[in-house]
Amino acid sequence: MNTAKFSTIDEYISGFPNEIRETLEQVRNTVRAAAPEAIETISYAMPAFKLNKSPLVYFAAFKTHIGFYALPEGNQAFINELSAYKTGKGSIQFPLNKPMPLDLITKIVKFRVEEVSQGSLSK
């Protein structure tokens, strides 16, 4: 992972090779489409989206995967669909050598939008 400091998602993405940049843009555009009201930012040195000033999702590129962070609730709600991926408390690893599961990312983001909109304990 590139450890430079970034102030925008564009700056973050520009530091990666073309193939990874394309994948990061796919993830970014998928999140944007699923949460058009969300604000792009950098948080914890990675691309993030916030809604109503609350964290929505984060993502980052690593050597072999895209890390996607939907906070613990986002993972728990999709436990069956995520069974094919390495997960941790609030983290999902989508391998770079396979197509990004954009439909699943859309579902997770929409779940998080609903959660944040209802003022759940997702802050």
Features:
YdhG-like; Aspartate Aminotransferase, domain 1; single chain; Iron chaperone; alpha+beta; globular
Helicity range: 25-40%
> What is the CATH first-level class name?
Alpha Beta
* Average predicted confidence as pLDDT: 90
Low-pLDDT segments, ≥5 res: none
CATH topology: Aspartate Aminotransferase, domain 1
Task: Record the strand order, biggest sheet.
Answer: 1-2-3-4-6-5
Shape, per Cα inertia axes: globular
- Counting structural domains, the number is 1
Class by SSE composition: alpha+beta
Distance between the termini: 26 Å
Any overview of this molecule?
With 123 residues, the protein is an alpha+beta fold. It has one domain (9-117): Aspartate Aminotransferase, domain 1 (Alpha-Beta Complex), CATH 3.90.1150.200. It has four helices and six strands; from the N terminus they run H-H-E-E-E-E-H-E-E-H. The chain has helices spanning 9-14, 18-34, 71-77, 102-117, and strands at 39-43, 46-51, 54-61, 65-69, 86-88, 91-95. The chain has a six-stranded antiparallel sheet with strand order 1-2-3-4-6-5. Strand 1 and strand 2 form a beta hairpin. The longest helix has 17 residues, at 18-34. The chain is globular, with a radius of gyration of 13 Å. The model has no long low-confidence stretch (mean pLDDT 90).
